[in-house]
Amino acid sequence: MKPFIFPAFMLLSFAANAQQKTGLPASTKPIITNTNITMRPVTTGSTALRTTPTTSAVQEKPKPGSGNTSPSSSAPGLTDADYFLAVARVTIKTAGDNKEKLSKMMVSVYPAAGDDNYQKGYTLESWPEELKVWSTTNFTLPRRAGFEQAFNSLAHYRQTGVMLDVLYNTVGNGLFYISDAWKIQEVSVTLEFKDKNGNPHPTYGSKTLYFPGVYLDFYKWKVYYKTDPYFNTLPPTIENRQ
pTM above 0.70? Predict the structure, then answer.
């Protein structure tokens, strides 16, 4: 009889457990309280990867005005046409023959092409003082009466190049004006291009160009210094008095 009693006891115990499970409410769910999640590196070849628990939750996109977005508006970009020649500063180095006092000198900077271009730039007129031998003198040129800002834009200069001319007029300098001469060692010009608010151009905010020296006198009385549109200096041209 003992072999029969043990199976009967197991059958009654199984029925009691089944009845106890089916008695749970339908809304009851198991609660997970495991907060100690251990992360172990997974090694693949020579690189160790760290595994992390993942969830299936969908993240919401930031709402407008929530402070999570960066501003998209920016100031409009400027072009070369928005910058013009604001300052023209000329430096003249005199060599071993001075410019005599009372001999008039005129220095001009302007675009190398265009109708009446020399009248629309910068000019220092009829400067009568002496330039001594082996001296260096700086001049900030004033605007001419016919100055035009658009004509002096960086865009225009980068189409035509730069013209710098120096005129030496010895007439009126005493009895020996015909024999008067002036030897220039070097001429340079510093160009400053700025926008309407006075802000310098990022590349051409201050550009200095250097030109070789020449010999001027009563007959050879004017020199033209010129650049190409890339601001590379070209050989000077001497104009003789007619």
Answer: no
Distance of CA 128 to the CA centre of its chain: 40
Q: Is 93 helix (H, G, I), strand (E, B) or coil?
A: strand
User: Please, what sign has the CA dihedral across residues 169, 173, 179, 181?
Assistant: negative
Cα–Cα distance, 109 to 124 (Å, whole number):
9
The kind and range of the H/E element at 189 are strand 181-194
Q: Are 216 and 181 in contact (CB under 8 A)?
A: yes
CA–CA dist 154, 205 (Å, integer): 10
Which residues, in sequence order, are CB contacts of 210 under 8 Å at separation 6+? 186, 187, 188, 233
CB-CB contact of 98 with 173 (8 Å): no
HSE-CB for 39 with a 13 A CA cutoff = 7
Distance CA 154, CA 200 (A): 11
Q: Within the chain, which residues score under 50 in pLDDT?
A: 1-75
Q: What are phi and psi of 49, to 5 degrees?
A: -110, 140
Average pLDDT, the chain: 78
